[in-house]
Structures are given as structure tokens and as C-alpha cells.
UniProtKB/TrEMBL annotation:
Catalytic activity: tRNA(Met) + L-methionine + ATP = L-methionyl-tRNA(Met) + AMP + diphosphate
Record note on quaternary structure: Homodimer.
Gene Ontology cellular component list: cytosol
NCBIfam families documented for this protein: metG, metG_C_term, PRK00133.1
Record organism: Dysgonomonas macrotermitis
Function: Is required not only for elongation of protein synthesis but also for the initiation of all mRNA translation through initiator tRNA(fMet) aminoacylation.
Compartments reported by the entry: Cytoplasm
Protein name (record): Methionine--tRNA ligase
Encoding gene, per UniProt annotation: metG
EC class of the enzyme, as a word: ligase
Motif, 'KMSKS' region: chain positions: 332-336
Family annotation (InterPro entries): aa-tRNA-synth_I_CS (IPR001412), Anticodon_Met (IPR041872), Met-tRNA-synth_bsu_C (IPR004495), Met-tRNA_ligase_1 (IPR023458), Met-tRNA_synth (IPR014758), Methionyl/Leucyl_tRNA_Synth (IPR015413), MetRS_core (IPR033911), MetRS_Zn (IPR029038)
Domain TRNA-binding: 578-679
């Protein structure tokens, strides 16, 4: 029998304030958390939704160095962008704060000191990489080298982004400091460790025996960690950005971000409720839930609970409904490579269409395995589901009511068997949606809500009130009454998922508040109730709009390839007399045509200063024949003739291959007499 709680505390992973929020964050954490919180609020439950920016850690210092500003400048900038994006997107936090606040620094310091004074830490001296030129110990991300697994020369000290393998700095071959570029040396340093191995026994019981209801991906990852055996984990690191270790002799050391960040949930609650925060964190009748992505499972299921247990006065999470990762167009989302759909840019490109993205990301959520977002799927779900089913049904029901009954809800008369079957189909919608929401299966819950719209759409199409209105107005009244009751149900069922659309629909129905308890009822709107004017809930998204988004990603991919491009190694040296054998000259293009049945080949007639010669070149993908006539080009004049597609080619045009594989002809910068030598 499940435990009954009086209130629910919901936290969502703190996003790093070193960049904006992207769709991977939304699908993995913030949309499911927001859906759940909105659902509880609709039910009239006591719930608190805590969020905030994680503003410490190495990624922020790296970004600051790259941009030539301070870490505080970086977090101020991105905290503002993230907070505004969440607000505009409808993520309904009770507070969205930050870990650079004074209240957080004090809360985190006090937490550390309590554990330190209780003897919960182990003090260890170990060797770590040190940059002698920069005069600093190097965090994992400040060390790069060759991955021992795939040979990537630019693997980081904590992970190879090429093959995805987790690494330690000492695993790297030929390590180098990203600060100075120099080879680092090993030097002794002192740190404090949380001995997770001492907590392994109770964690094993608490997770593997007491919480078998956790999602399979969460339970499985926890079991894997526990089966491997837990090890002590450093809670401090050598860095000048973060919460300082509050001990004498610990200058230049801060709390490790994994220790610091989750305490942010507590400090943000204290900031919001300075007098009553403890009932949310220390009363056994509070249900604590952490919504996170899979990269945070170990921290929220093993590490943070161990911290809370060691402190001694806090409750532990009841569930940690983590999602897997969302990919983008078949590739892993990456902040460093700008391979993402950024929330603030989406809100600019698709104004007023927050719910479309909320719908698509929920329908395609990576709940138990990684999933893929594509712009084509985004367009299809909008046009074929939101517009064609949900929006179409509501619009027809509203428009017909205004047309035949002056916008007043008509009476419900005698029901046909089909009417009764239709009503029976959605009376259990509340139970079905609740079942999935309570078990954090938001994709299935959304499907049930959308099924209600399908029922309504089919009902209107089958009963055809625009035809019955010609001969049987009482029947028309019944059809539209039932349709409007379904529309009112949709306004309730979709409020957790699509709050903007649900609010718009409530306004159209002219109702101020609809309670979750009304879901499934067939008499929500009384006879004679006046509706407001009909308006379209969703708009069709055209191909041109999607093509722009796809092109933006293609441009990003090209930019990444260009930035990562490395020139091919220089060929073996040759003697000068060998070079002198090559006769390179300038010629003028007299004619240029495509070679028949050869997509890549162009046929040139060149004035070489002595005669006219034919040269075949494989550059048709990058040049149109007509744009080359009259241009001057460089060519090798003394190559032996060679037949290509039955045409004798006397020479070779010179071109350079770009990073993306395209070819550019080598041309003189000023007009040169044909036949002039190059070299």
C-alpha cells in the first residue's frame, strides 16, 4: 500500500548557466516536471515547484575565458536568458533562483560544515595535474589529450565527446593544458571526500528493495552503480569560482559542483519560504520528487540522498523520474557545437506557438530510451494532430453553435445509441490520464488526452450537424451540446500539457475555472451558457518555415566542419627540377558546356595563348557553365592527353578543395595574357 502524503515538493535539475536552454533540457526535465505540477495544482493539492540556475563549475569558467569576461558576467547573462525563456514557455516555477546567491552560499557552507563537524568526510592528499605556467591545478575539462579508446586527439579529461567514453585525466595520452597549451605535471593537493562506500548498504536496501517502482532506466542505472561498488567522492576541488570551502587552510578550494548544486534546491526553497521551508524538506508527510535527465541519475539517486542522510534531518526523495536523452535530426545535442534548438530562438521564430513544441516534445519524449527530434515530425504532428484533429473539432463545434444558436449552448435532447457510445468513450478519460500521470508516463497521458479530441472529431464528422440543421434542429442541438461538453473536457485534460491553448479554449467557452474533478463529466456547460467568439487554436505550419529551420542546422553543421577542419599532411619533399617539369599556365575560357550523361563533368574550350584546347574538369557540382565563360583559369599544360567520356582532355584545371569538399577554381586576381606561365 502506497504512502499518503500531505504535500509534494518537485525539483527540476538546475541547468548550467553557461548557455541557453535547448529542447533536450525541455524534453528530459522541464516539460514533464511542469505537467506534473500543473496536474497537482488542478487537483487542488499542496505543491511547490523549485528551479534555478547552476552557476558554478568548470563549464562556466571555460566559457568566461573564451569570451574574455568574468564567470559572474557569464552566469548573469545566461541566468537571465534561461529564466525569461522558462517564463515565456509557461514553466510554472514557484521560484527560479540561482546558486550564486548569498543565501545559497551560506546554505551550502553550513551543510558542508555540519557534515565536516560530524566526521562524515575523509581527508585525502592525492596527485593531480598542475599547469606550471598558469600556476593552477587543472579541472578535468581543462585537460585535453588523445583518447585511449578511439584516438580522438581532442578528448577531455572527463569524457571523449567523439566516442562518449567516460575518462579520467590520467587516461589521456599526451595530455595538455587548455589554459596554456603546455604539458601539465602531477602535484599533490588535499581534498575532502564523501565516503559513498559507507552508505552502500542502506542505499542498496532503499533503492533496490524499497523502490522497485522506479522507472526501469533509473532503477537499472542505480543497480549498475551499486553492483560495481561505490567509492569515496571528492566534495572539493581546486578552483577560484564557486562556494569557498569554509575551513582554515582551504584557500583556493571550492565545493565541487555536484555537491554544491543539489543544495540549491534547499537554498531556493529557503529564499521563497524563509519561515516555513523546513516543512517541505524535513516533514515525513512531504513527497519529494526530482525531475532530471539520465546524466544526473547517480547524483540524485545515490549521491544527494547520501548527503541528506549524512546530515540527518532531511527527507529522501520518493521518486526520481528521469528521462533519457533527446537527439536532434539523428545527432547528439551539443551546446559546444551549437547543435541544438534553443528555446529563446524557438520563441522568436514561432511566436505564440509554445504549446506546439510542448506537445511534440511530450509526444516524442525519451521516457525510457533516447529519442529523436526532427523538424519534419514537428510539422507533421502540428498539422496532422493539433490542427486537423484538436483544433478542427473545437473550431467546428464553436462555429456551428454560433451559426445556429447565436453562440448559446443548446439543450441536450433524446440520445441515440451512437450518442451514448460516444459519451461512454470519454467518461473514463480522467481515470486513464491520472493513471499515467501518477506513474510519470506523460507520453501515454497525452495520448489519452488527444484521444478525447479524436472522439470529438469523429463524432462531429459522423453526425454531420450541418446536415441535420436543415431538417431536425432538436437533433442538431443534441449533437452540438455533446460536442461542446467534449470541448470543455479538452480544456481540462490539456491544461497540464498545453496551458496556453487550454486557457484560450476556456476563454472561447467563456468559463473562468474548470476543476480536474469535472474531467469526464457530460454536463460541464449548462444549457443557454453564452460562448465567446470562435478562434483558431492552432495554425498550419508551412514547408517554407520548416525548411528555414533545417537550413539553420545545416549551416551550423557546415560551420562546425569548417572550425574542425585540418589540412591534409604535406606530401613528401620533391627536388626543384621535378617541380620545373610541371608547366602551369593561365588560359581564358572561350566555351563551357556540360558533358552529356556525366553529372560531375564540364567541357572547357580554353584559349592557351598558342591555340585552343579542350579540358574536361569535374567541377559541375559547384559551377554553372555559363558563369565560367570569359573567366581566366590556371591549368597544367603539359599533361599527356586523356580520354574522358570519349572526349580527349588536354590538361588539368587547378582547383582547391574546401573543408566541406567543394571545389574552387584557382584564378588570377587580375587580367593576364593567355599562355602566361605560373611559377
Amino acid at each position: 500500500m502506497s504512502k499518503k502524503f500531505n504535500r509534494t515538493l518537485v525539483t527540476s535539475a538546475l541547468p548550467y548557466a553557461n548557455g541557453p536552454v535547448h529542447i533536450g533540457h525541455l524534453a528530459g526535465v522541464y516539460i514533464p516536471a511542469d505537467i506534473y505540477v500543473r496536474y497537482l495544482r488542478l487537483k487542488g493539492k499542496e505543491v511547490l515547484f523549485i528551479g534555478g540556475s547552476d552557476e558554478h563549475g568548470v563549464p562556466i569558467t571555460i566559457r568566461a575565458k573564451k569570451e574574455g569576461v568574468t564567470p559572474q558576467d557569464i552566469v548573469d547573462k545566461y541566468h537571465g536568458i534561461i529564466k525569461k525563456s522558462f517564463e515565456e514557455f509557461g514553466i510554472a516555477f514557484d521560484i527560479y533562483s540561482r546558486t550564486s546567491s548569498e543565501i545559497h552560499k551560506k546554505t551550502a557552507s553550513d551543510f558542508f560544515l555540519k557534515l565536516y563537524n560530524k566526521g562524515e568526510f575523509e581527508e585525502k592528499t592525492s596527485e593531480q595535474y598542475y599547469d606550471e605556467e598558469a600556476k593552477m591545478f587543472l579541472a578535468d575539462r581543462y585537460i585535453m589529450g588523445e583518447c585511449p579508446h578511439c584516438g580522438n586527439p581532442n578528448a577531455y579529461g572527463d569524457q571523449c565527446e567523439s566516442c562518449g567514453t567516460s575518462l579520467s585525466p590520467t587516461d589521456l595520452k599526451n595530455p595538455r593544458s587548455t589554459i596554456s597549451g603546455k604539458t601539465p605535471v602531477m602535484r599533490e593537493t588535499k581534498h575532502w571526500y564523501l565516503p559513498l562506500d559507507k552508505h552502500e548498504s542502506w542505499l542498496r536496501q532503499w533503492i533496490l528493495e524499497d523502490h522497485k517502482e522506479w522507472k526501469s532506466n533509473v532503477y537499472g542505472q542505480c543497480k549498475s552503480w551499486l553492483d560495481m561498488g561505490l567509492q569515496p567522492r571528492a566534495v572539493s576541488r581546486d578552483l577560484d569560482w564557486g562556494v569557498p570551502i569554509p575551513l582554515e587552510g582551504a584557500e583556493g578550494k571550492v565545493l565541487y559542483v555536484w555537491f554544491d548544486a543539489p543544495i540549491g534546491y534547499i537554498s531556493n526553497t529557503k529564499e521563497l519560504l524563509p519561515e516555513s521551508w523546513e516543512k517541505w524538506w524535513k516533514d515525513e508527510d512531504t513527497k519529494l520528487l526530482h525531475f532530471i535527465g539520465k546524466d544526473n541519475i547517480v547524483f540524485h539517486c545515490i549521491v544527494f540522498p547520501a548527503m541528506l542522510k549524512a546530515e540527518g534531518s532531511f527527507i529522501l526523495p520518493e521518486n526520481v523520474p528521469a528521462n533519457e536523452f533527446l537527439n536532434l535530426e539523428g545527432d547528439k545535442i551539443s551546446t559546444s557545437r551549437n547543435w541544438a534548438v534553443w528555446l529563446h530562438e524557438y520563441l522568436e521564430d514561432f511566436p505564440g506557438q509554445q504549446d506546439v513544441l510542448r506537445y511534440v516534445l511530450t509526444a516524442n519524449a525519451p521516457e525510457t530510451k533516447d529519442n529523436d527530434f526532427t523538424w519534419k515530425d514537428f510539422q507533421a504532428r502540428n498539422n496532422n494532430e493539433l490542427v486537423a484533429i484538436f483544433g478542427n473539432f473545437v473550431n467546428r463545434a464553436m462555429v456551428l453553435t454560433h451559426k445556429y444558436f447565436e453562440g448559446k449552448v443548446p439543450a441536450c435532447h433524446e440520445l441515440t445509441d451512437y450518442d451514448k457510445d460516444t459519451l461512454a468513450e470519454f467518461t473514463n478519460v480522467k481515470e486513464e490520464v491520472e493513471k499515467y500521470l501518477e506513474t510519470y508516463r506523460f507520453r501515454d497521458a497525452l495520448k489519452e488526452a488527444m484521444n478525447l479530441a479524436r472522439i470529438g472529431n469523429k463524432y462531429l464528422a459522423d453526425t454531420e450537424p450541418w446536415k441535420t440543421a436543415k431538417s431536425d434542429m432538436p437533433r442538431t442541438e443534441t449533437i452540438l451540446n455533446i460536442s461542446l461538453q467534449i470541448a470543455a473536457n479538452l480544456a481540462i485534460a490539456f491544461e497540464p500539457f498545453l496551458p496556453f491553448s487550454a486557457d484560450k479554449l476556456q476563454h472561447m467557452l467563456n468559463v473562468e475555472t474548470l476543476a480536474w474533478e469535472q474531467l469526464g463529466k457530460v454536463d460541464i456547460l449548462p444549457t443557454g451558457h453564452q460562448l465567446n467568439a470562435a478562434d483558431l487554436l492552432f495554425a498550419k505550419i508551412e514547408d517554407e518555415t520548416i525548411e528555414k529551420q533545417v537550413q539553420k542546422l545545416l549551416d551550423t553543421k557546415k560551420a562546425n566542419e569548417a572550425s574542425e577542419y585540418k589540412a591534409a599532411p604535406v606530401k613528401p619533399s620533391i627536388q626543384f627540377p621535378d617541380f620545373e617539369k610541371v608547366d602551369i599556365r593561365v588560359g581564358t575560357v572561350l566555351e563551357c558546356i556540360k558533358v552529356p550523361k556525366a553529372d560531375k563533368l564540364l567541357q572547357f574550350l580554353i584559349d592557351d595563348g598558342i591555340s585552343k584546347r579542350t579540358i574536361i574538369s569535374g567541377i559541375a557540382q559547384w559551377y554553372k557553365p555559363e558563369e565560367l565563360v570569359g573567366r581566366q583559369v590556371c591549368f597544367i599544360a603539359n599533361l599527356e592527353p586523356r580520354k574522358l567520356r570519349g572526349i580527349e582532355s588536354c590538361g588539368m584545371l587547378l582547383s582547391a578543395e574546401n573543408a566541406d569538399g567543394s571545389l574552387s577554381l584557382i584564378q588570377p586576381s587580375a587580367l593576364i595574357t593567355p599562355g602566361s606561365k605560373v611559377g
